[in-house]
């Protein structure tokens, strides 16, 4: 199994623990990730200003993967959405791909529209498969319970993802969590958005939105919140202190990236999963896992 | 809400929205309010109300909509769009409204700043010294080459917005 790894902007600068854990998990599972140095921003923030410019940026990235005959996996949900949205746009608006290709000529690129874009979690779930992951689990994480945060763009818009998972009642990330042996908790506000996209527009709204979820996750007594997007983590982890201050609450809730959790179950050391880089230390969670599970008598 | 003044209404606004990708289905809205009850921003901010925004567009309230801050307040979560019984692509419509505002020279500062960063670095964040940190934990170096991105942004008039904010620095 081989994919081009699309890092985008946020993961390689603000989510080194995510990148490190994803790469090490992939290696352990025998999934080859190819780096394409010339990848840029996917175009997400530019779409709000000018859709066509955003789609051209997406197409340029996709064309580079296509040239090497590779499908793309991404770690950021917004990148996944933007790249896949571009694919959808080209298919459903005849002529747009031709226009795009005229502009790609000067980069010596052409996009035929063949690249499949998947989030890393979806690839694990759909292509690698839960059963195959199960075979590689050497340290079931039975002592802990966590809360899955799907975020918005991993499942939505459903039309661009061929209805891969049901946003009203998603299950793929829960299954990916449960295969590690950890319990995936049901909690209020599970489907809620972190508000990250409007942090720069009206900060207090974004903080309120993230707080709603943090409250619910604490109430459910989760050992950690599991994220699959660097933006979501910026809100729940990067801004957790701010929220605590603003609303006079205390959480100290560790926010782990899914590959960090899976990596533990695959027997990878916390250091190689970037646990040191987590702003809110998952010390209590790791301690729970330190003692070998009691042998069944 | 203030009293609506009929002479300030502009029916060409709906046409412009309908002709912008994502805005096409706006006239199918039958004002059920499903979008507003699904909206996580609306939950905390009275000023942001997708059903009301759609209604304002349908009435032709061009200036009020385009000059508002609420045009920029959609978090893009797609909850409304998934649930709309009339297949109004609300999230895409919000995107279309932002695109139209930009066309008329109105850009929210936060988006200007993002465009500026992307213009400078080809990504939202500078790589710079980070490559050293990456190397330390065995992550490959990343390349910073903003040239092609600058060309694309310039080609669509977004470069202008980006350069404006860079010059203010
Ligand atoms: S979605 Fe965000 S992080 Fe990902 S490439 Fe686009 S702008 Fe960068
Ligand atoms: S939860 Fe926030 S960061 Fe995550 S996908 Fe939704 S808006 Fe984006
Ligand atoms: S959910 Fe759809 S039909 Fe109902 S008010 Fe919103 S846009 Fe209109
Ligand atoms: S996409 Fe925008 S308008 Fe729709 S529910 Fe989400 S924040 Fe509200």
3D architecture notes:
The complex is a heterodimer of chains A (about 300) and B (about 170). By secondary structure, chain A is an alpha/beta fold. Chain A contains 13 helices and eight strands. Chain A has two domains: about 1-120, Glutathione S-transferase Yfyf (Class Pi), Chain A, domain 2, CATH 1.20.1050.140; about 140-290, Rossmann fold (3-Layer(aba) Sandwich). In chain A, the strands form two sheets. Chain A has a four-stranded parallel beta sheet, with helices on both faces. A four-stranded parallel beta sheet of chain A has the order 6-5-7-8, sandwiched between helices. Chain B is an all-alpha fold and about 170 residues long. Chain B folds into two domains: about 5-105, Alpha-helical ferredoxin (Fumarate Reductase Iron-sulfur Protein, Chain B, domain 2, Orthogonal Bundle); about 110-170, no CATH class. In chain B, about 50% of the residues lie in helices and about 0% in strands. Chain B has helices spanning about 10-20, 35-40, 50-60, 60-65, 80-85, 90-105, 110-120, 130-135, 145-155, 160-169. The model of chain B has no long low-confidence stretch (mean pLDDT about 95). The interface between A and B is large, with 57 and 60 residues. The structure holds iron/sulfur cluster (4 copies). The site of one iron/sulfur cluster has 12 residues of chain A, from helix 5 and helix 10.
């Amino acid at each position: 199994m081989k994919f081009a790894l699309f890092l985008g902007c946020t993961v390689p600068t603000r989510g080194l623990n995510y990148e490190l854990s994803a790469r090490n998990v992939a290696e352990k599972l025998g999934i080859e990730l190819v780096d394409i140095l010339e990848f840029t921003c996917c175009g997400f923030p530019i779409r709000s200003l000018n859709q066509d410019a955003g789609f051209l940026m997406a197409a340029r990235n996709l064309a580079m993967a296509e040239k090497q005959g590779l499908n793309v996996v991404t770690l950021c949900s917004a990148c996944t959405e933007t790249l896949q949205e571009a694919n959808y746009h080209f298919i459903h608006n005849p002529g747009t791909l031709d226009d795009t290709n005229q502009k790609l000529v000067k980069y010596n690129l052409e996009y035929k529209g063949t690249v499949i874009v998947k989030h890393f979690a979806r690839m694990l779930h759909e292509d690698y498969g839960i059963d195959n992951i199960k075979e590689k689990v050497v340290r079931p994480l039975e002592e802990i319970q966590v809360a899955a945060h799907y975020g918005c763009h991993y499942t939505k818009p459903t039309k661009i993802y061929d209805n891969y998972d049901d946003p009203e009642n998603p299950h793929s990330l829960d299954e990916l969590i449960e295969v590690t042996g950890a319990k995936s908790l049901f909690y209020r506000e599970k489907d809620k958005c972190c508000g990250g996209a409007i942090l720069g527009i009206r900060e207090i709204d974004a903080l309120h939105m993230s707080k709603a979820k943090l409250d619910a996750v604490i109430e459910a007594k989760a050992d950690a919140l599991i994220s699959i997007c660097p933006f979501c983590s910026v809100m729940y982890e990067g801004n957790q202190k701010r929220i605590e201050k603003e609303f006079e609450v205390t959480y100290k809730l560790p926010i782990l990236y899914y590959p960090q959790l899976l990596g533990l179950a695959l027997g990878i050391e916390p250091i190689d999963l970037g646990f040191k880089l987590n702003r809110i230390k998952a010390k209590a969670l790791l301690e729970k896992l330190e003692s070998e599970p009691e042998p069944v008598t | 809400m203030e009293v609506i003044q009929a002479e300030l209404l502009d029916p060409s606004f709906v046409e412009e929205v309908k002709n912008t990708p994502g805005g096409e289905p706006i006239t199918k809205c039958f004002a059920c309010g499903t979008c507003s009850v699904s909206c996580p921003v609306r939950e905390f901010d009275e000023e942001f109300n997708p059903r009301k925004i759609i209604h304002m567009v349908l009435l032709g309230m061009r200036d009020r909509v385009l000059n508002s801050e609420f045009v920029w307040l959609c978090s893009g979560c797609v909850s409304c769009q998934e649930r709309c019984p009339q297949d109004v692509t609300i999230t895409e419509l919000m995107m279309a409204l932002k695109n139209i505002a930009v066309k008329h020279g109105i850009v929210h500062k936060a988006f200007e700043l993002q465009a500026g960063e992307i213009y400078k670095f080809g990504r939202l964040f500078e790589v710079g010294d980070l490559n050293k940190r990456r190397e330390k934990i065995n992550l490959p170096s990343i390349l910073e080459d903003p040239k092609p991105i600058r060309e694309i942004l310039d080609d669509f008039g977004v470069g202008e917005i980006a350069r404006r904010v860079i010059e203010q620095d």
